[in-house]
Design brief:
heterodimer, A: about 350 residues, alpha+beta, Rossmann fold, 2 domains, six-stranded mixed sheet, 8 helices, about 35% strand, B: mainly alpha, MetI-like fold, 13 helices, binds adenosine-5'-triphosphate, binds magnesium ion
Chain lengths: ~350, ~290
């Protein structure tokens, strides 16, 4: 186990910067998820920690060593790749034991470690197969097994679940979480799936264009997104954003609809803002509105419904913007029906219209 | 029901047609080879007969006996030629493979200046017909005194084979995902170990096929060898075939017998390695 620190870490390809001076402290045993849209530099960052990519500037510290110039094998970490990268010419047993064999450990110890890892991941019946004869989920487990036999200081995962189908992904997500609780190693996990990030992380690091946008626990980033990018990236469905102007303490939308400012906020008159409302906080009247004193009401035509069983997702338009709202205890709704919706203002967000930054605190 | 059985009949007919077609093609391809083998076992009279005798009347090992016999009775130094061929082909193949692996790996994995140009230049060097080089080579080799030596021919064959092995092996390494070597490095390997323990074994069948091609090229090469060798110290088997020609006669039977001896090692080698060739590359290690 070890802590990991990134200090002003920069990655450049030629003159093109891909990661721009990012800082990140990861505590011992922490599960940190790097999340962000495709091409934002998550993999690059992870690969710099792994030693697979040169570091153009700054320092990567693992434990108490600056590892910038250490090759991967001297960093004592394990990595699970998106395509698993199992050695196709070796059996599962040999794949699992490979790192120990390279380290010239005695065969008895290797066997013990392999059997233990195989037991944890239910791979025992597959030990003598080659990777070619395994299913996607099984390969994924072998890749994880290969990582855990070594008892590394740090686990690195680069989108390990993205090649699995939805059901298996959920299953493996739980496995990974259990595994972390069991071995307690530091984990850096890269994904572009925000649900994975929310469910797995102790702390989420949201990246965009080579910068870190926000770091926080899943709840922190969900409840207090620093800007519209985080607000729409984290949470499903994404947060609704309404363009408007502050007039007399109210957000006035383009079509004239006025919604009071969320409580506790005092934004200057005439400022252009975006009002952020999550689908959970805008609900049709008569369907379990959240109990709050700060409720505002709007009327919207429903254009589409998505029944999900316990709830129905309603698509409606307000001031020309498409909104998503949740209806609990659903009843059938037909397209075109106008409904009155309640907005829980104390759960809403205000962002600057230009910069997108949160106006809260 | 009717359509199902019709379908089955059509399928069977198609299969038969396939088989017949293949058989025809194979007979055409194999006929010269078989003719050579056949001729090596029968008397010259029968070989030369007009119209040709298809079904041999008597078979014998006379040509082989004569070939291994003394110089006076039509014998040639078969074993010496065989040894020369073997030394030259094996050595040049091994060198071409080593260079090909290093070069192919570099082309597949690294980015460097002039990579594209270099690659095209390598390929272009193969476009020059070998025979066109025979005179310059003859002169240079003559001056440097490496004419009629193993070394000289090995040099020529390495030069002939390297562009090809680089090209082939580059293609195979390209198919090995680079994450495999990265995973190995994280698992504790040095760059060098990662190559030998993971990338090389995975690309092994490809490298083996490059090896076969290189070997067969050297083993069968005649045009240059006939210019650059002149005595038993370096003559290879294909050149040895000429020993059966004299001013007025052609010993077809003897020639065929030597040709058969030439074909055998090539066939054996191909059989030994064919498992690798057919197995091809299996990349179960990454997402399929
Ligand atoms: N060898 C390279 N040369 C130049 N640019 C590169 C190179 N490798 C990656 N990049 C660029 O670096 C940026 C970050 O890439 P990276 O692989 O880290 O993205 P990512 O966040 O992992 O995205 P994804 O979710 O698609 O995997 C991308 O814009 C990519 O184009
Ligand atoms: Mg990536």
């Amino acid at each position: 186990m070890a802590q990991v620190q990134l200090k002003n870490v920069v990655k450049k390809y030629g003159a093109v910067g891909v990661v721009h001076a990012i800082n990140l402290d990861i505590a011992e045993g922490e599960f940190v998820v790097l999340v962000g849209p495709s091409g934002c530099g998550k993999s690059t960052t992870l690969r710099m920690v792994a030693g697979l990519e040169d570091i153009s500037g700054g320092e990567v510290i693992i434990g108490d060593r600056v590892v910038n110039d250490l090759p991967p094998r001297e960093r004592n970490l394990a990595m699970v790749f998106q395509n698993y990268a199992l050695y196709p010419h070796m059996t599962v047993r040999e794949n699992l034991g490979f790192s120990l064999k390279i380290a010239k450990r005695p065969q008895a110890e290797i066997d013990r470690a392999v059997d233990e890892a195989a037991g944890i991941l239910s791979l025992t019946p597959l030990l003598d197969r080659k990777p070619g004869a395994l299913s996607g989920g099984q390969r994924q487990r072998v890749a994880m097994g290969r990582a855990i036999v070594r008892h590394p200081d740090v686990f690195l995962f680069d989108e390990p679940l993205s090649n699995l189908d939805a059901k298996l992904r959920t299953q493996m997500r739980v496995e990974i979480k259990k595994l972390h609780q069991r071995v307690g190693s530091t984990v850096i996990y890269v994904t572009h799936d925000q649900i994975e990030a929310m469910t797995l992380a102790d702390r989420i690091v949201i990246m965009r264009d080579g910068h870190i946008v926000q770091v926080g626990t899943p709840l922190e980033v969900f409840e207090n997104p620093v800007n519209t990018f985080v607000a729409t990236f984290i949470g499903s469905p994404p947060m609704n954003l309404l363009e408007g102007v502050i007039r007399a303490g109210q957000v006035v939308l383009a079509d004239g609809t006025a919604i009071p400012q969320p409580p506790g906020l005092n934004v200057a008159e005439g400022r252009k803002v975006q009002l952020g409302i999550r689908a959970d906080n805008i609900m049709p009247e008569g369907h379990a509105l959240p109990p709050t004193a700060h409720m505002a009401f709007v009327e919207m035509p429903v254009i589409l419904t998505e029944p999900l069983g316990t709830e129905t997702l309603l698509y409606a338009t307000l001031s020309g913007t498409e909104m998503q709202a949740k209806m609990l205890n659903p009843r059938p709704v037909s397209a075109g029906e106008r409904m009155r919706f309640g907005i829980a203002l104390d759960k809403c967000h205000l962002f600057d219209a230009e910069t997108g930054n949160s106006l809260r605190g | 029901m009717a359509t199902a059985s019709q379908h089955r009949i059509r399928k069977r007919a198609l299969k038969v047609a396939h088989f017949a077609g293949l058989f025809l093609a194979m007979s055409i391809i194999c006929l010269p080879g078989l003719w050579v083998v056949l001729n090596s076992f029968r008397p010259t009279v029968e070989i030369m007969a007009k119209p040709p005798v298809w079904i041999p009347e008597s078979l014998s090992l006379d040509h082989y006996r004569a070939m291994f016999g003394g110089a006076g009775e039509g014998g040639v130094p078969v074993l010496t030629y065989f040894r020369n061929s073997l030394i030259i082909s094996v050595t040049s193949t091994v060198i071409a493979l080593l260079v090909g692996m290093a070069g192919g790996y570099a082309f597949a994995r690294y980015r460097f200046k002039g990579k594209g140009v270099m690659f095209v230049a390598l390929m272009a060097s193969r476009a020059v017909p070998g025979v066109a080089l025979s005179l310059p080579l003859f002169i240079i080799f003559g001056r440097t005194g490496i004419i009629d030596t193993h070394f000289g021919l090995i040099l020529v064959y390495v030069a002939m084979n390297v562009p090809f092995t680089i090209w082939l092996i580059d293609g195979f390494f390209r198919q090995v995902p680079k994450e495999l070597a990265e995973a190995a490095e994280i698992d504790g390997c040095t760059r060098w170990q990662a190559f030998w323990r993971v990338e090389f074994p995975v690309a092994r069948s490809g490298i083996a096929s490059a090896g076969i091609f290189a070997f067969l090229t050297s083993w069968n090469e005649y045009a240059l060898a006939s210019q650059l060798t002149r005595s038993a110290t370096s003559k290879t088997m294909p050149v040895g075939l000429l020993d059966f020609t004299s001013q007025f006669t052609l010993n077809w039977g003897g020639m065929c017998a030597l040709a058969v001896l030439m074909i055998i090692p090539a066939l054996v080698l191909t059989f030994l390695v064919q498992k690798h060739l057919i197995a091809g590359l299996t990349f179960g290690g990454v997402k399929g």
